[in-house]
Design brief:
With 78 residues, this protein is mostly helical. Helix content is 79%, strand content 0%.
């Protein structure tokens, strides 16, 4: 399955925002949680739109995006 770069970018942004929750507490945690949730919602909406556009299974598209986001990091030199 061909995964658009934008979906990979959105997944990575959501995961980076989630990772930044570590060691935060109180208001800092709440503010970062909102940033993570916004990033995650954007990724989920994009996955749904892409699955609809290709008449694909949404779960399979999401799984492919997550796999590509993890495995392409080394290849992209990030």
């Amino acid at each position: 399955m061909e995964i658009p770069d934008e979906l990979i970018r959105l997944e990575r942004a959501a995961e980076e925002a989630r990772a930044q929750l570590a060691d935060l507490t109180g208001r800092e945690y709440e503010a970062q949680w909102r940033r993570w949730r916004k990033a995650a919602e954007a990724m989920q909406a994009a996955v749904t739109a892409h699955a609809d556009a290709i008449a694909g299974n949404r779960y399979e598209v999401e799984r492919a995006v997550k796999t590509a986001a993890r495995h392409d990091r080394g290849a992209a030199g990030e």
